[in-house]
Amino acid sequence: MQTDMRTAYIQSIRSRLSEHRFVHSMGVEKAALQLAEHYGVDKDKASCAALLHDYAKQLPKQQLMALAIQYGIEVDPVYRECPGLLHGPVAAELVKEDFGIRDPEILRAIACHTVGAPCMSPLEKIIYLADMIEENRDFSGINIIRKAAFTSLDEGMLKALEQTVGYTMQQRLKVHPDSILAYNSLLNAEKENENENI
Ligand SMILES: [Fe+2]
Ligand SMILES: [Fe+2]
């Protein structure tokens, strides 16, 4: 990525995010670059999507909802109950406008970093995982996900979704259907791989 674009992204998130979230975003970039290097994925795209993934994180819930409606994002019942989850899809629209980013892979990776999606691309999985395992994160079970993320992206995603969906359920919060679809599609891929190896 051109240095001036990276600098512009960093300046922008520094002004939009709290220090804590800014440091998190820089950590996500570092983890995303490590994963991109490990799996041979475009590092410029990984850096861009990682830096901007939480671009809409600190917008008030009402504003997230209003922007989602304005951009034609489908606000399903779970989004309606937990508008904070919209910060992914809304960020993808905002960075399109604010920076002219048009790359669908980058935009989708930003959009689906909150709840996941079925049939995620390697870049999408990298951003989802980097968001969870970056060096400033600390929660019970993180080392299992960190290790799995470098074993295979799919193994990392399965472990990550088990953690987030399980935690969401323990909190008695609704699970977004896309998280379930993401999990099921990973199991399908796992089964296909097993069949190919027979
Ligand atoms: Fe986020
Ligand atoms: Fe994040």
Summarize the entry for a quick read.
By secondary structure, this protein is mostly helical. It has helices at 3-16, 19-39, 43-52, 61-70, 77-81, 87-99, 104-111, 122-133, 142-151, 153-170, 177-196. One fe (ii) ion is lined by residues 24, 28, 53-54, 131.
Walkthrough of the structure:
With 198 residues, this protein is mostly helical. The chain has one domain (3-196): Orthogonal Bundle (Hypothetical protein af1432). The chain has 11 helices and no strands. The chain has helices spanning 3-16, 19-39, 43-52, 61-70, 77-81, 87-99, 104-111, 122-133, 142-151, 153-170, 177-196. Helix 1 packs parallel to helix 3. The longest helix has 21 residues, at 19-39. The model has no long low-confidence stretch (mean pLDDT 96). One fe (ii) ion (FE2) binds at residues 24, 28, 53-54, 131.
Number of helices: 11
| CATH C-level name | Mainly Alpha
Mean pLDDT over the residues: 96
Ions, cofactors and other ligands present here are: fe (ii) ion
Largest sheet: none
